[in-house]
Amino acid sequence: MLTRWSVLLLFAFTMAAARAITPAPPRLMESIDAETPVRLQSLRIHGEIAGGMAETTVRMVFFNPNGRMLEGQLQFPLLAGQQVTAFALDIDGKLRPAVPVEKAKGRQIFEAVERRKVDPGLLEQTQGNNFKLRVYPIPAMGTRTIELKYTEAMGREGKSWQYRLPLAYGERLQDFDLSVNIRGSGDAPKASGAFGAVRFNRDARGYFTHVAKSRFAPSGVLDILIPTAQHTLTYIGEHDDDTYFVAEIPVAATRSARPLPRVVGLLWDSSGSGVGRPHEAELAELDRYFKALGNAEVRLTRLRDRSEAAGSFRIAGGNWDELRTALQATVYDGASALADWLPQADVNEYLLVSDGLLNYGSDRFPALAAGQRLYALNSSLVADTGRLAALAERSSGRLVQVSPGKPGTAAEALLTDASYVRSVRAEGATAILSDAGGARQGLVRVAGKLLAPAAKLMITVVEQGKPREMAVAVSASDQKHELVPALWAGYQLRALESDYEANRGAIRRLGAQFAIPTRETSLIVLDRLDDYVRYDVTPPEDYLAEYVQMKLMRRVQLQEKRRKHLERIVSDFNQKVAWWEKTYPKDAPPTPKPEPRPDTRAYAPAPVAAAAPMAMAPAPAPVSALMGGAPALPQAGAAPEIGISLKKWTSDAPYIARMQAASADTIYQVYLDEKPSYANSSAFYLDAADMLFDKGLRELALRVLSNLAEMDLENRHVLRILGYRLLQAGAPELAVPVFEKVQYLAEEEPQSFRDLGLAQAAAGHPQQAIDQLNEVIVRPWDNRFAEIELIALAEMNAIIATSTPPLDTSRIDPRLLKNLPLDIRAVLTWDADNSDMDLWVTDPNGEKCYYGHRFTYQGGRMSLDFTGGYGPEEFSLREAKPGKYKIEANFFGSSQQVVAGATTLQVTLSSGFGTPAAKEKMLTLRLKGRGQSVFVGEFEVKPK
Predict the structure, then answer these.
(1) Cα–Cα dist 509/109, whole Å
(2) Among the three residues 417, 448, 472, which one is the final residue of a domain in this structure?
(3) What would the pLDDT profile of 866-890 be if each residue is shown by its tens digit?
(4) Of 1, 404, 769, 890, whose CB neighbour count within 10 A is largest?
(5) Residues 151, 82: contact at Cβ < 8 Å?
(6) Residue 296's CATH number
(7) What phi and psi, each to the nearest 5 degrees, are found at residue 277?
(8) What is the C-alpha to C-alpha distance for residues 675 and 681, in angstroms, rounded to an integer?
């Protein structure tokens, strides 16, 4: 079997996000067990600039010096206002352009195709203006070529456009080539920074430059200033039969004093990600701001996984020492629930100091009252500047960048008003959008769609506190510019992201229409046409005709596949009902205990169809009773008394002893002291939370757990661990939004629906729960998810049977509606894909029920073996013989590097399952290596 590793390249071609910050070289990080990292072999960059818009094309050739195929992962941020517009990957020696796909579907396709060792490439937006590009494979001792394009509306420096090109790629390149074309400029551009003096030559269309080097290590930032016209310019561009326009209108780049607030709400992002912000730079800007306020009240609210109660501080004569001390003492810990606060009516304006990476909770960001402003201050390079800007601008505030290299600029932005657009009216045009921030640099951009050959814009700009009316004519015969539609799409995307949760559908449609990565869409390249057909992805134009023909044939095949899937589930369920209805002996078994399974099992997906029961089980029988009818019990009598005990999980990590020895008053400080050493370890947060729970510090324990949401943007494995642990902690209301995000990230995995359904049930939402579980049952899944439908079916029927009032079951096939109550039930799940864990249950007879011995003498049943990742595996017993039942978990093996250096397991033990008297206990534990097994707990069944 081919072994592969991932190579992570933290790529910084736009890491000069803060104008005055020189970016650090990017880091090329080799993965676990990789001998030598993949290296960037050659780099070709081309910039095309016209008017105030620029497109940059970056072509990279990566070389894999290892003897094995690798997956490459390229992570990079973009500047505010920059937008990826294209991605291409070499297939058979030719660059193939990517096409848009729904984000969750794109990830599903990539991983499914990758498992077949076929060439996929996927570019997706993670959070904010941060992106991840995945490519597989980079062949052994071979290369792959990647091309990215991004566009931007350039900012201004004085009376010139400013084009900045970071070149800190961090390694010596075999080949380097840079070319820049500047069209329509009458005066020569000026370059500074990288390369020293760069010479521009003139041609009929403008200016150009070209730099080619060998064995060269580029560094620094190339800064080009391009003289611009001081009058209004308009451009048009076509896309999908619509004509878009952009008008660039010079305005006064002056600032005027504004009325200052008397009551300020300070929202301080104190989540774990905040620890890396340049706090001294933030405090320096606030010092200038508060000194200018003179006398005021500041209400401080710290935002983490949950907001803290607001504290009030008085500013007298500009003195804010007490507040400064409080901010300097901030503990940065927990996830980012930035919407978990309520505005106060008497606050004049709010300052939100944050990177904007909201990753926890389901609250919508609060709406401010009329007259209240929100200013968002960002000092982080990795930030969701789009969200921050949109949130601020919808309340007449703005995004303010804190730049350590330019002290005082943020405070000036808070204390004064620059020119801004108050309103835009249009005749003959629609979908009008404007760049709220551009006026501060002496330029207003207005974009929209033409409805007629000619249109008129009436724009009101406020300059130095006074409104000025201006009219701008736009015509379909204006100068054409191919970047105009992309610029409009970027403005529209920013507007929609002010309320992302409400506009997800619109964002998805916009991303698909303009083929741009968003939070709802990704760009994908596939190798084979039948993969485009199989996953219903519209291919590049060259393949469309053949694609349409193949798609018609596949539609018929899918309908038949879904029908056969449901019939198989009904048949499998009938077999399980037959097992449940049979009476099993409760004396000592006549046969010896089975031998433990050998360690030579081959890794292969378990078959989809349920294995036939052992000889003791009857042949399949029809369902004898529908939901609501009383099941026929094989023996009369009251249910037995069943106790559940769990062995507390203990880790051997070096920090454990110190935290266990700490008192309830000091353990959190010990945790904070150890945290920097284990900031990227999910195991650390799980262990620390357990010990905080043990000492009765529930709120702090939940905060520590929430750090898992901060660890790795959109890592569904880590988020699953978080959701399971929140359920174990009795906080299903916090687990539901976590599992909702997991489902969004991994809709192709049935566990995503099952986990969310069980969380909904625990949170008291049974109707939503059975709807989610029914999706597990009716959808055809990959063959590696063995028998998960029957497990979800048992859980769905149990919820229906015990719910009051009755639930709507009209969407469920009536043949599947039958509750199968159990005396005891054990379920095992785990976090690592492509891994094989086993559930073992040994009954009072000493008979072990496991994957190789699925049915026991007294009626125990083990579900089919899950060898491909996640589980669940389920042990069921309808009528339990008195005695003790030992529950164990075993790590059989893994074909991947697991999430946290160990596989995190979740075990749920239930008694009285499917009855109103059901009791349940959950445990989270970890296994580190193949062959390791651990005692989980036991049931003790007492005689009736």
Answers:
(1) 19
(2) 417
(3) 776 788 999 999 999 999 999 999 8
(4) 769
(5) yes
(6) 3.40.50.410
(7) -70, 150
(8) 9
